[in-house]
């Protein structure tokens, strides 16, 4: 099987730059701490596997940031580009090589290398895979990219309860789709409280 490509969409955990919805409920300082925590866990999982990891960073001024070593110099990185999330994900899909392509953010602290391996295994027998998030979105989406693969990211209601449903609906009707365990994405204060309550 072709080696998988893991695209990590992330921002440095800076006040006012990342976790703005979380900051509304927790305050800037605590939101930055949580952003650092979730990013650290994401990168630990992403950099410990047999896939090729590519960091899609934003903004462009963060392209050379090491984020305290969590973004090592050896990690391939690219600009997320301009536009909304649809345009940024389309850019990643267009730039990825053929084969299994995984997309993930840095909001789910329970991501592990084992879950990423499971996603890649799931794509061996499916056309796509979702790691559902509790809020109706997803912490991971994977697709087997071929020469005729069309983007499933158009007209998606992002940052709401229909994001996974919309992307799934954009896949071909005959597509085989696998599911991973549901995780909590830390987007708002209630998510952070729920994640801590589940420990």
Question: Which terms would index this structure?
Answer:
6 helices; single chain; alpha/beta; 199 residues
Write a concise synopsis of the structure shown.
With 199 residues, the chain is α/β, with parallel strands linked by helices. It has helices at residues 20-26, 28-46, 85-95, 113-122, 163-170, 189-197; strands at residues 5-10, 52-57, 76-79, 99-104, 128-132, 138-145, 177-179.
Structural class: alpha/beta
From the spread of the alpha carbons, the general shape counts as globular
State which percent range the strand residues make up. 15-25%
- The number of helical segments is 6
The first-to-last residue Cα distance is: 36 Å
Give the proportion of residues in helices.
25-40%
Are there runs of 5+ residues with pLDDT below 50, and where?
A: none
Radius of gyration based on Cα positions: 16 Å
Largest sheet: 7 strands, mixed
Order of helices and strands: EHHEEHEHEEHEH
Number of strands: 7
Word description of this protein:
With 199 residues, the chain is α/β, with parallel strands linked by helices. The protein is 32% helix and 19% strand. It is built from 6 helices and 7 strands, in the order E-H-H-E-E-H-E-H-E-E-H-E-H. A 7-stranded mixed beta sheet has the order 3-2-1-4-6-5-7, sandwiched between helices. Helix 1 (20-26) crosses helix 2 (28-46). The longest helix is centred in the N-terminal third of the chain and has 19 residues, at 28-46. It is globular. The N and C termini lie far apart (36 Å).
